[in-house]
Predict the structure.
Amino acid sequence: MSRSPSQGLRPQLAMMQPNDRSLIPAGMSAILPETASRVRRLEETLLASLDRWGYQEIIPPTFEYLDVLSAGLEPKVIEQCYTFPDRTTGRILLLRPDVTAQIARIVAMGMVESTRPLRLCYRTTVFRYEPEHVGREREIFQVGAELIGADDVAMDAEIIALMIDCLMRLGLSSFKISVGHVGFFQALLARSGMSAEGQKRAEHAAARKDLPRLAEILSKEQVPAKAAKAILEAPGLYGRQEVLDRGRVLAAGDRGLRATLQRLTDVYELLNAAGLGEYLLMDLGEFRGFDYYDGLVFDVFAEGIGCELGGGGRYNHLIGRFGRHLPSTGFAFDVDRLFRVIERVEDGLSRAQADFFIVSPVQHSDRVFRVAQMLRDGGFRAIQGTLHAAGPAGLQRALEEGRLLVASTVVVLGVPGVAAEEALVLAESSLRRRRSGSTTPTQRKVKIKDLPGLPVKN
């Protein structure tokens, strides 16, 4: 199936006519088999990396009570929730809109006695209502990690290094992680004398890098010229060591500003010493889309994708909203966006394939079941089929089916001249000759017990 990289996980939508799209809810879609297989391998690669770092998987519930989870959600997110009444209690339920808030609730209400720091990971789906015209999905596939119960430079560096490791395990190298500290820009705003409402509007403008809007807000708030100049400069400070140096000039003698810069500097130096500095860029105007972030924050970007692949940061006060104060940090990947990037790299995830495609005449189907199970028990991917015709025509059709399945080896059982303990093997080289025009595939007999020892394409 052909697919444009920009189509991501949902290629079938591009093939539908506008009227056909009304058959499924906007922002939702089925993921077809070949793509689903590749997505699962992507997720498994990420989870394997997280497991190597000691992060344990957690599976949060699909529904939550609105009156419980809302303590960890900002009003804008609550407005985007899908809600409905619980038929048993009458209380309002919501489809999970954010996993971090769920994990905060789970930890505060059920894991407070666990050994800390907790290292948790997940793969799940979040649901948020988005107007159809904005072009965003309403069903978002995520894989993420949370590091709970520690607040120090080493933990900030660990979560960023873990994100880098995940991306590298996927075969990506052309990416950058933009790292900032929400406290720096907030402190700049606070010392300017702005109102609380004005500060919030300014934060939103800075997050979008909308400097004209930011200048308009500062003017309405009557911010002094010198303070306004520093505020307007900060969102454009994006780079490496020179950004930190300029930040210290803007901070002057402000202790709060200098403290945020020192935290950024310490994390940057630690990651740089670990050989990861090439992936980092400092951004003094960096913000995340959730208000619970209150410390170091970061987003990851890659060439060819005009939006972040994921991100995260420190949220030291979120778990406290559910009754237990625990400093924490974490990140999440948008799987759809990661998938689109991987399709662009030359050594991306390979197409779904079978190690063995096993066929026989229908009267010998029991042999196919036994042999396929033996191979699966040995860790191979085996697909069963039926030999639809006798003689060369049947073998050629089996080869064609194997080619469509991208099978490494085609195995034929129960045909004349092949004993019960034997198999007729058509290897990958035969498939290639078939595609090049050869009409006489290479065949050889092997003992069924020797099939697991045959070379297969990885």
Summary: The longest strand covers residues 118-127.
